[in-house]
Specification:
This protein is α+β, with helices and mostly antiparallel strands. It contains 16 helices and 22 strands. The strands form 6 sheets. Strands 17-22-18-19-20-21 form a 6-stranded antiparallel sheet. The chain has a 5-stranded antiparallel sheet with strand order 6-5-4-1-7, with no helix packed on it. It has a 5-stranded antiparallel sheet with strand order 13-12-11-8-14, with no helix packed on it. Strand 11 and strand 12 form a beta hairpin. Helix 2 packs across helix 7, helix 3 packs across helix 4 and helix 5 packs across helix 6. The longest helix has 16 residues. The chain starts with a helix and ends with a strand. The model has no long low-confidence stretch (mean pLDDT 91). Keywords: Hydrolase, Protease, Signal, Thiol protease. Pfam families: NLPC_P60, SH3_16, SH3_YKFC_2nd, SLH. This is NlpC/P60 family protein. It comes from Psychrobacillus mangrovi.
């Protein structure tokens, strides 16, 4: 009721005082000829934004949650001098903007994340913008022909359709809305002005020209990993209490590996089979309760044409219809890095591993704008990744490239089934290093030993894979190392050890040596 009374009062004031567009620059980048000058003049005349012809409005800059919250609260005319007492994990009551933030959360217009943080400096998507406006102004409506990329099962779809029905939302020339793209300051301002003043909806609108963007809608659905790393279990639901950090959403693989004692690490043998990284495309094979059996497309096994199979929590996956095949790609080549929700590094989105591959929509100074499976564009430090037109264009590595990349992980504790920089197994580290350099090899050691080119022991070169098998090298392959020269290999031995360098001609490795394969041309 507080919001409704304030909004009705605000509307009376809005429409009783607004008349014409001012004939003066509102901001340095909003002159009289600017296409949205009327909408911005309207917001300025009501005190929702403050014009200053000596400064830029930054029309194409992504608007933050706090900036949007301030505009909404001002437009609603809600008093904030006595804000409700709300506990945030990232904002204290003495924060300058606490009254605005607490009020908009109390009104149910914006909400905190799963950790209780408001993230005031984070941008938000065009889809989220629709949700905020619908909640704030209690908008209603239906549309018969929705935007082609706004699917019924998106959580933001109903709100986007309501904006579309009220002629508040304008799509692109190809009838897309791009719900996962972050909204700019001017686009939010236009939508807010149209929400408050229906006259702006009556003006014939031209669809936004097709954005210079590589992503596009698709009728084909793809399923992608939506956590930093997901472990594939041989059987669903056998996880222990100590495995919670690897099962929950979001995942914290570092916490998981550090929390296990040696016995608990050894228990994983034959319980987990492999891992998939954030953004990896997978195929759904089967569902059972809260678990989904998937196949990882980039991990070869001869018995499953779709890829390496295993069970993961369903919450670790996200189904998307965004086609990014025309986007360049960023391959993380640091041991690990962080995706941010803003370029000020105030809002961390997720930590990601070496060899995580994400589509790039823009390069901007020290940042790469990358597309996440579910939450639109996030920011990746450019120094931590290499950008290529596509995976096929990744230049093939030298022997030195492979060896030096593997050496980054010396001292990293072993993790059974691990394929991430938070913990590798023997074949996982080699699979990851080669994939990082544009070469996809089989995932497991006994399949790695069947591909590539056979190499005699006296012809070994750095970058070759050396294998070890039971029965004095004549049985099934159980271990692999990366040959680095001078009779030595880099390898991840077992759960009680770390990535290290050892001789291939000492102890059990001399006894069980079974052969070598070369994957470098």
């Amino acid at each position: 009721m507080k919001r409704l009374i304030a909004f009705c009062t605000a509307l009376i004031v809005l429409f009783s005082t607004y008349s014409t567009v001012s004939a003066a620059p509102l901001f340095k980048d909003v002159e009289d000829t600017y296409s949205a000058k009327a909408e911005l003049d309207f917001l300025a005349s009501k005190g929702i934004i403050k014009g200053d012809p000596t400064k830029n409005f930054d029309v194409n800059k992504e608007i933050t949650r706090l900036e949007a919250a301030e505009m909404i609260i001002k437009s609603l005319g809600i008093e904030t001098t006595n804000p409700p007492a709300i506990i945030f994990t990232d904002i204290t009551p003495d924060h300058t903007s606490y009254p605005i933030i607490a009020t908009i959360v109390d009104e149910g217009i914006m909400k905190t994340d799963e950790n209780g943080a408001f993230n005031p400096d984070a941008p938000f998507t065009r889809g989220e913008s629709a949700v905020f406006l619908v909640r704030a102004y209690d908008l209603k409506g239906t549309v018969k022909t929705p935007f082609v990329d706004v699917l019924a099962d998106y959580w933001v779809s109903e709100s986007i359709n309501i904006l579309q029905a009220n002629k508040i939302a304008t799509g692109y020339a190809d009838n897309t809305y791009k719900p996962l793209a972050n909204i700019t300051k001017v686009d939010f301002a236009i939508q807010l002005a149209r929400t408050l003043n229906p006259d702006f909806r009556k003006v014939p609108t031209t669809p936004i020209p097709e954005a210079v963007s590589c992503e596009k809608p698709s009728k084909t659905k793809k399923v992608k990993v939506n956590v930093q790393v997901t472990s594939l279990w041989h059987t669903p639901g056998i996880d222990r209490a100590v495995d919670l950090a690897s099962i929950k959403t979001p995942v914290d693989i570092s916490k998981w590996t550090k929390s296990m004692n040696l016995k608990q690490k050894w228990w994983l043998v034959d319980k987990t089979d492999t891992q998939a990284l954030f953004g990896d495309e997978v195929v759904v094979l089967q569902k059972s309760g809260k678990w989904t059996k998937i196949a990882i497309k980039d991990q070869y096994v001869p018995y499953q044409k779709e890829g390496y199979p295993g069970w993961v929590p369903s919450s670790h996956l996200y189904e998307t219809t965004t086609d990014t095949t025309n986007c360049s790609i960023a391959i993380v080549n640091a041991k690990s890095t962080t995706l941010y929700s803003d370029k000020n590094k105030k809002n961390k989105y997720i930590d990601i591993s070496y060899t995580t591959i994400l589509p790039v929509v823009k390069e901007d100074g020290e940042w790469l704008h990358v597309i996440t499976p579910q939450n639109g564009v996030k920011y990746l430090p450019k120094k931590d990744a290499k950008v290529h037109k596509n995976y096929a264009s990744v230049p093939k590595p030298t022997q030195k490239d492979i060896v030096n990349s593997a050496k980054m992980f010396l001292g990293l504790p072993y993790l059974w089934a691990g394929t991430s920089a938070f913990g590798f197994d023997c074949s996982g580290i080699i699979y990851s290093v080669y994939k990082n350099h544009g070469i996809v090899i089989p995932r497991d050691s006994f399949y790695q030993a069947t591909k590539g080119t056979p190499v005699a022991k006296n012809d070994l070169q750095p970058g070759d894979l050396v294998f070890f098998a039971g029965n004095r090298g004549k049985g099934k392959v159980y271990h692999v190392g990366l040959y680095i020269g001078e009779g030595k290999m880099l390898h991840a031995p077992n759960s009680s050890d770390k990535v290290k360098i050892e001789s291939i001609s000492a102890g059990v490795y001399k006894t069980n040596y079974s052969g070598a394969r070369r994957y470098l041309k």
